[in-house]
Design a protein that fits this description.
The mean pLDDT is 97. A 4-stranded parallel sheet has the order 2-1-3-4, sandwiched between helices. The protein is α/β, with parallel strands linked by helices. Helix 1 runs parallel beside helix 13, helix 3 packs parallel to helix 4 and helix 4 crosses helix 14. The protein folds into 3 domains: 109 residues, NadA-like (Rossmann fold, 3-Layer(aba) Sandwich), CATH 3.40.50.10800; 82 residues, Rossmann fold; 79 residues, NadA-like (Rossmann fold, 3-Layer(aba) Sandwich), CATH 3.40.50.10800. It binds 1,3-dihydroxyacetonephosphate and iron/sulfur cluster.
Length: 308
């Protein structure tokens, strides 16, 4: 995929960022949904699980997180001694905002002893109220690790149901969803299949159940990329956020990828620009921090996941 800025400007900003990054002893982490030029200057591009593992392990002094707020917050929870920067503070996740700590506490009061599995797409306060975290790549494994019968999955109902169906386990779901993946309809998939009959349909588990039922493969962003890489198929209909096409074209230059719908664009993931990455490194702001009392409790849920 092409950069969204001209090549001259990209080269200038990339050079400035490289120099500042060395001066600041910084590492730049980016999600697969970021703009192509942001992915291209990052030290590491990955899915949510890989990014939190990197944030926990890095020996850099500064982490520049090119993603959305909960991702930078997870890095701050795992690495409290590091400076964690989110170049665009307004980049949030509407799904993460669909559950708050107060609502979750009320649920726990109604169902004493319930075990709460929280998708990493949640605030630190919500993680602090949860037993264990998960991402789209390990939700099944996380649920499998739990004994007992009262389990609540928050906030993504689609991911929760996908994992529960695989395990054939009764689980309660929070009525949350990703506003971007929700825009994909069954009609979009049927239309794309008609246009590209040889293509495999690969989708993210944040898609609605009726979409997952149509898919040849369901997986996290990293899962979708490795499926395309290892598949003998030449064509793929892609049911996740558009940013992933950049990496898919890089790792499979001879294969064809068709975005299942032009509406698969997350506005929050597209907010961060290269100029903002440069400015963040220059000013060491905006910085994401988490109150110590919340951080310690939220870290338990993340650590439990990372230990699996
Ligand atoms: P993964 O990269 O873990 O698949 O997550 C997708 C997502 O929606 C991040 O916001
Ligand atoms: Fe949130 Fe969906 Fe955007 Fe991911 S793609 S940040 S889940 S709204």
């Amino acid at each position: 995929m092409k950069h969204t800025i001209n090549e001259g400007l990209f080269q200038t900003l990339a050079k400035e960022i490289e120099i500042l990054k060395r001066d600041r002893k910084a590492v730049i982490l980016a999600h697969y949904y970021q703009r192509p030029e942001v992915q291209d200057i990052a030290d590491f591009v990955g899915d949510s699980l890989q990014l939190s593992q990197k944030a926990a392990m890095t020996d850099a002094e500064v982490i520049v997180f090119c993603g959305v707020h909960f991702m930078a917050e997870s890095a701050a929870i795992l690495s409290p001694d590091k400076v964690v920067l989110l170049p665009e503070m307004k980049a949030g996740c509407p799904m993460a905002d669909m559950v708050d700590a107060e609502g979750l506490r009320a649920y726990k009061k109604r169902v004493p002893g319930v075990q709460v599995v929280c998708y990493v797409n949640t605030s630190a306060e919500v993680k602090a109220e949860s037993d264990i975290c998960c991402t789209s790549s390990n939700a099944v494994k996380v649920l499998q690790s739990l004994e007992g019968k009262d389990i609540l999955f928050i906030p993504d109902e689609n991911l929760g149901r996908y994992a529960a169906n695989i395990l054939e386990r009764p689980i309660e779901f929070w009525p949350g969803y990703c506003k971007t993946h929700d825009r994909l309809t069954k009609e979009d998939i049927l239309k794309a299949r008609k246009a590209h009959p040889s293509a495999k349909v690969i989708v993210h588990p944040e898609c609605r159940e009726e979409i997952c039922q149509e898919a040849d493969y369901i997986g996290s962003t990293a899962g979708l990329i490795s499926y395309a890489q290892n598949s003998e198929n030449q064509e793929f209909i892609v049911g996740t956020e558009s940013g992933i096409l950049h990496r898919l074209h890089q790792v499979c230059p001879d294969k064809e990828f068709y975005l299942a719908s032009e509406r698969l664009v997350c506005p929050n993931m597209k907010m961060t620009t290269l100029a903002q990455v440069r400015d963040a490194l220059q000013t060491l702001s905006p910085r994401v921090t988490v109150k110590e009392e919340i951080r310690v409790r939220a870290k338990q849920a993340l650590d439990r996941m990372l230990a699996l």
